[in-house]
Design brief:
By secondary structure, this protein is of the alpha/beta class. Helices cover about 50% and strands about 15% of the residues. It is built from 19 helices and 16 strands. It has helices at about 20-35, 50-60, 65-85, 95-110, 165-175, 185-195, 225-230, 230-235, 245-250, 260-275, 305-315, 315-325, 335-365, 375-385, 385-395, 400-420, 420-425, 430-455, 460-465, and strands at about 5-10, 40-50, 90, 115-125, 130, 150-160, 180, 200, 205, 210-215, 215-220, 255, 280-285, 290, 295, 330-335. It has a six-stranded parallel beta sheet, sandwiched between helices. Strands 5-4-6-8 form a four-stranded antiparallel beta sheet. Strands 9-11-10 form a three-stranded antiparallel beta sheet. The chain is elongated and about 90 Å long. Bound molecules: ligand ME8. Ligand ME8 binds near residues 22, 23 and 256.
Length: about 500
């Protein structure tokens, strides 16, 4: 079974920030987990380079949009490796192959009768690149997301006949209750649909920074339709000489933030229906990372710099913190203080100590050899069906819940150490077999939680599995006694407390 996961493509009007890192990390956790299942995975991210957000930012800097796009696309392209994220392709909407695909698909939408000429008049947010209904605007005609005063637009456009998809979309939501998750976002999208869909501009007349409309060169396509199509176009040229569309489409999961729900949950399926293209399986909508109660974004100037965190503690710590501290799907506050608390109390004190104690005791008492193959039944019971539970959560993009399941077992293993007190057993030579069983149980327990933590903590998990001499990452090998640790080697502290990664 192939698995195809996407992040939004990010605007190149500014540099990447923690919010972008968040979605990219989440998509990477899903991609890695599905690779552990032996599935063929395609993980896409990239940049959204057209439209007013980019044209305006370039104008403010006195440079051409392409120059700004090139500069910032390079920074977004560098982001996944810095996060330990393993995207298979990086799409830019200025790629000529993408532009050709946009022109082809949207011409088909027109040929199918869903495009007509008209005049748009209404409120518009140039930062969202979005036309706002009267019911959606804040006091003083302000954007509810960016808080800037909206502009009044009057423009001749080609329109997309969104209203024709009112019933088809209602049917979609009735038939596929898992099309949008979490449930609150499904309800929000459905009530937007039920409130009555109005046709929306498909092209812009005033703007030149976009994909030219093939049937009228005075227009470019409205940036959102250009952008949404990235999920589809990328497959046709991501792998040179190969078209992955048949293999990978429809997408398994689009991961997005709640700010762009309507585009993905309403416009996107309508557009695909209009073009006669199969719909994606799931749209999962995560919440906002908040700092001091406000959405964190460059334009609001309240950004926790992911690069500083990575420099000091490594990318694993950032990945873990974001998916552990903020329930995936909900809004949550982030701060340096709560990051440091999680790092110390969970990564260093719980997982780090479990690893160093287990490996330390095996080295001290058994010269690094794991002699016991028998697993203590009292512990085995608490690990029963753990990989299946984790997989079931990740199937629903419940990334925090999946991590919690594994973490409960990390804690269970630490309790097991305390209960068994191997250092006491070691003092009584006649209890050698018991010590072997306890140490063997710990080694195998540690191995299995580490395999399951790999999507979240890839670099640390690989180091640890290496020290356990058990490099198999497959989910099939993540159950107790589906693999075995035979010999451990020494390992340096996984999550150092006093000497962070930069040595300061
Ligand atoms: O909207 N908390 O691009 P964008 C959590 N180009 N996630 C956040 C966040 C925050 N505070 N801030 C940003 C666009 N994000 C369009 C998308 S897709 C076809 C086109 C994440 O650069 C989150 O995923 O504004 C959000 O949806 C996305 O960045 C918006 O990125």
């Amino acid at each position: 079974m192939p698995f195809y996961v996407t992040t939004p493509i990010y605007y190149v009007n500014a540099a990447p920030h923690l919010g972008h890192a968040y979605t990219t990390i989440a998509a990477d956790v899903m991609a890695r987990h599905h690779r552990q299942r032996g599935e063929e995975v395609f993980f896409l991210t990239g940049t959204d380079e057209h439209g007013e957000p980019v044209a305006d930012a370039a104008h403010a800097l006195g440079i051409e949009p392409q120059e700004l796009a090139d500069r910032n696309a390079a920074r977004f392209r560098a982001l996944p490796p810095q996060l330990g994220a393993t995207n298979d392709f990086f799409i830019r909407t200025t790629d000529p192959q993408h532009e050709a695909c946009v022109q082809e698909v949207l011409s088909r939408v027109r040929d199918n009768g869903y495009v007509y000429e008209g005049t748009y008049e209404g409120w518009y947010c140039p930062r969202c690149a979005d036309f706002k209904a009267d019911s959606e605007i804040d006091e003083g005609n302000r954007c509810p997301i960016h808080h800037i005063v909206l502009t009044r637009e009057r423009e001749d456009n080609y329109f997309f006949r969104l209203s024709a998809f009112q019933q088809p979309l209602e049917r979609l939501y009735a038939e596929r209750e898992d099309f949008v998750a979490p449930r609150g976002r499904y309800n929000e999208a459905l009530s937007f649909i039920r409130s009555g869909l109005r046709d929306v501009p498909l092209t812009r007349h005033k703007l030149t920074w976009g994909v030219p409309v093939p049937w009228d060169h005075e227009h470019v396509f409205y940036v959102w339709f250009d952008a949404l199509l990235n999920y589809y176009s990328a497959l046709s040229y991501a792998r040179p000489g190969e078209d992955l569309t048949d293999l990978m489409w429809p997408a398994s999961y689009h991961l997005i933030g709640k700010d762009i729900l309507r585009f993905h949950a309403v416009y996107w399926p309508a557009l695909l229906m209009a073009a006669g293209i199969e719909l994606p399986e799931h749209v999962f909508v995560h919440g906002f990372l908040l700092m001091e109660g406000e959405k964190m974004s460059k334009s609001l100037g309240n950004v926790l710099d992911p690069f500083e965190v990575i420099d000091r503690y490594g990318s694993d710590a950032l990945r873990f913190y974001l998916l552990r501290d903020v329930p995936f799907g909900q809004d949550g506050s982030v701060s340096t203080a709560s990051f440091e608390l999680r790092y110390e109390s969970e990564l260093a004190n719980e997982l780090g100590n479990l690893a160093s104690r287990t490996i330390g005791m095996l080295n001290r008492y058994r010269g690094g050899e794991v002699l016991g193959a028998e697993i203590d039944p009292s512990l085995a019971e608490d690990f029963y069906l753990l990989p299946e539970q984790v997989a079931a959560h990740i199937d629903r993009a419940e990334l925090t819940a999946a991590l919690e399941q594994v973490w409960l077992r990390v804690r269970r293993l630490n309790r097991y150490v305390e209960e068994q007190a191997p250092w006491r057993i070691a003092k009584e030579p006649e209890r050698a077999q018991e010590l072997d069983r306890v140490l063997g149980t710990l080694a195998e327990g540690l191995r299995t939680v580490t395999v399951l933590l790999w999507p979240y903590l890839p670099a640390s998990a690989e180091r640890l599995l290496d020290a356990l001499g058990a490099p198999d990452l497959s989910l099939a090998g993540a159950g107790l006694q589906t693999g075995r640790v035979r010999r451990v080697s020494a390992i340096e502290s996984l999550f150092p407390k006093d000497s962070p990664a930069d040595g300061s």
